[in-house]
Every structure is written in C-alpha cells, then in structure tokens.
UniProtKB/TrEMBL annotation:
Molecular function, one GO term: oxidoreductase activity
Organism: Liquorilactobacillus mali KCTC 3596 = DSM 20444
Keyword Oxidoreductase: yes
CDD domains found in the cross-reference section: SDR_c (cd05233)
Keyword Nucleotide-binding part of the UniProt annotation: no
SUPFAM superfamilies, sorted: NAD(P)-binding Rossmann-fold domains (SSF51735)
Pfam families reported in the protein's UniProt record: adh_short_C2
Protein name per the record: Short chain dehydrogenase
Family recorded in the similarity comment: Belongs to the short-chain dehydrogenases/reductases (SDR) family.
Gene Ontology BP annotations: bile acid metabolic process
Amino acid sequence: MAKTVVITGGVSGMGLSASKLFLSKGWNVMIADFNKELGEKVYKELSSKYSKKQVAFQQTDVSNATSVTDLKTKTSQLFGKVDSVINNAGIFTKGALHEVAEDAWDRIMAIDVKSVYLMTKAFVPDMIEQKAGTIVNTASISGLTGDYNMAAYNAAKGALVNLVRAMALDYGKYGIRVNNINPGPTMTPMFKANPQSVIDTFKKASPLGKLAEPDDIARVMYFLASDESNPITGENIPVSAGFEIYSGQPVQK
C-alpha cells in the first residue's frame, strides 16, 4: 500500500522538488499551498504525469486552524492514513528588531512557527493511533546562527530548532520521528531573482563554491520522512554547502 505525505508550501522551490520526488518514489502526495492559481497549475502538470489518484492540491492557509483542519479532512478522504508531514511553508522578513513592524512579526511567527503547531494538532493524533509517522520541518541555518538584519526570521527559525527536540521527546514513544532540515541559501526561483553579483557573492562564501539546489533539499526531506532515516529523531540537519560551519574568525597567518 502506497504511503502518503502532506507537503506544505509544495508548489514552488524546495516544496515543489519534494512533491515531485515523493511522487517518483510512489507515494501519494497532498500538496498544500496558499497560492491557488499556481497550485492548480502544478496539480494539472503532476496529475497528467502520474495519476489523479496519487496527487492532490488543497489551497491552505497554514496559519489558520480552520484551513488546516479542512486540509486534514480532504487528505483523509482521498488517501486515508498519513505517513509523513513536511512542514515546508514559510516566509521571510528583513530588519533589525526595532525596525520590524508588529504585523510583520506576527505574520512570520504565524506562518513559520504556528503552522507547525496547527499541522501537528491536525495530523499527529492519527499518527499516535497508528503508532507510526514522520514529521519534517523546514527550519534554516538562520535558526542555528545569527544573521545581520534578519531578527524576526532568526527568531522564527530558532524556535523550530528547539521545538523539534520537544516534539521528538513527546512523540517518540508512539513511533513518531520528528526532524528539521536546515537549508542555507538555495537556488530557488526566488533566490535566483537576485542580481548575478549577489548570487556570486553567496557562492564565494561557501567552502564548496556553490549553493544547494532545491532537489538537494528534497532528497534530504525524503530521507528524513522515509524509513531510510530510522532511528534519527530530534535532529537539525544542515544542508547548506557549508554556510554554518565558519566561526567568523579571521584567517591566522
């Protein structure tokens, strides 16, 4: 029997790569995203390549409890039990802390952090009953380290970095594993919209001289969601081309 995964933020970038990878591995995939127009386009493309019985799209506001409950109901109707949840939806905002507007702070906390709470409330009870399941959250190396001009984003991703440990401790006895993937700068369509000079600067900052691709992130998502990663739980896994490994100290001659 095919396994089922729910992927939030699944219509572009890392989420789209994950949606395609899980489908290629024979999983049923429920794609959840706020962008209805793009979601329907992606669904049409993927359902023609795979099967309408294997993939579905649900417009979802992951910061809204009713919307997440509707996602859970639709997923259960179409696919039955859920084996994995990929909490990939997220947003970004710039600014030192005093520069961040209150509504911008509330929004990033709602979409990047509260969404994990709501998705867990909706999907974990069934995982507890079936005594199995995996949850993968998209955190960031910005939750592991500090960045200039990114206070709200650092705070949101930092919350996920510790939340994953609490979740792993609470749900391990039910056979549920919870892990974070922590990407660095990644060559998503949004990042590639930067001027080439900016992209080149980021590449030079990596010890590998390159940036991760969305497919690189998707492969680690699949690894953490599947039985291949048993018994890994409660971990933050950087996939960053080495961005988080440098202490910042100058070279000593």
